[in-house]
Amino acid sequence: KFIFSKYNFFIILIFFIFCFLTFFIVKNYFKTFFYDFIQENSLKYNFVLKDINISGINRLDKKNINNIIAKNIGNSILLIPLNKIRKDIKKIVWVEDFVLKLDYPSSINIEIKEKIPVAIYEENGNYYFIDEFGEAIDLVKNPSYEDLILISGESSKLQINELLKLLNLYKDLQVKYAYYVGSRRWDIITINNLKIKLPEKEYSKALKNLNEVFVKIGNIDYNLIEFIDLRVPNKAIIRFYDEENVDLMNDL
């Protein structure tokens, strides 16, 4: 009859530790053996990574991707850790999607699809590229160098896509800045510093009426105008910096 004792437990424990260590040593031995075998023959037949080809780059610094892959230069192309490379590329903030392919015998090709910024969002003195969903992509180093509309105001990120679709129909406005007022409506400012107050609703119609306003005021110096208020339906209030001079246009 077998009697389990502390001594027997100790013997069994030693046996399992021995088996584990043996397995670990043998596994690593064969792993090293096969790695060396593949690497040696890849060098012999020129199946080693030499070239990294990256396409689709615009705002993204190519070095960010090169640094991920370059450590594998000279290694067998059969031993390139593709899964790890994919995980590291996915972490790059500008990458929306990508295709990674090995091009035997010695190249790796990466086609990048970058995130597209639609505006620059300002918050507490910091500037961020944002996408069409209002998600921040990356910090903006020099906002003045960017040809994107600047927006601010609470909830403005969530509303910008709808505004941009409308402004795209009125490109002659050349809006450079938009402020979302009270989480309700937009004030927009053009490149010639003309401020236009849009209504809470139907600002598509308001922008359409704005063309008629421009026709009526003719070639007036916009620098004399403080703002054009389109918040009242079918009307336009033109406020000049000379506060005594206010023009009201009806039936737009």
How many distinct beta strands? 13
H/E element string?
A: HEHHEEEEEEHEEEHEEE
Helix content: 25-40%
- What is the CATH superfamily classification of the largest domain? Cell division protein FtsQ/DivIB
Q: Sheet bearing the most strands, described?
A: 10 strands, mixed
The CATH architecture of the largest domain can be given as 3-Layer(aba) Sandwich
Number of domains: 3
What characteristic shape results from the CA principal axes? elongated
Low-pLDDT sequence parts: none
CATH class of the largest domain equals Alpha Beta
How would you state the average pLDDT, rounded? 84
Strand fraction: 25-35%
Number of helices: 5
Describe the structure.
With 252 residues, the chain is α/β, with parallel strands linked by helices. It folds into three domains: 1-44; 51-114, Ubiquitin-like (UB roll) (Roll), CATH 3.10.20; 119-249, 3-Layer(aba) Sandwich (Rossmann fold), CATH 3.40.50.11690. The chain is built from five helices and 13 strands. The chain has helices spanning 6-44, 62-69, 82-90, 156-167, 203-217, and strands at residues 51-55, 95-103, 107-114, 119-123, 126-130, 136-139, 150-152, 175-181, 185-190, 195-197, 225-229, 236-240, 246-249. The strands form two sheets. It has a ten-stranded mixed sheet with strand order 6-5-4-7-8-9-10-11-12-13, with helices on one face. A hairpin with a 6-residue loop joins strand 11 and strand 12. The longest helix is centred in the N-terminal third of the chain and has 39 residues, at 6-44. The model has no long low-confidence stretch (mean pLDDT 84).
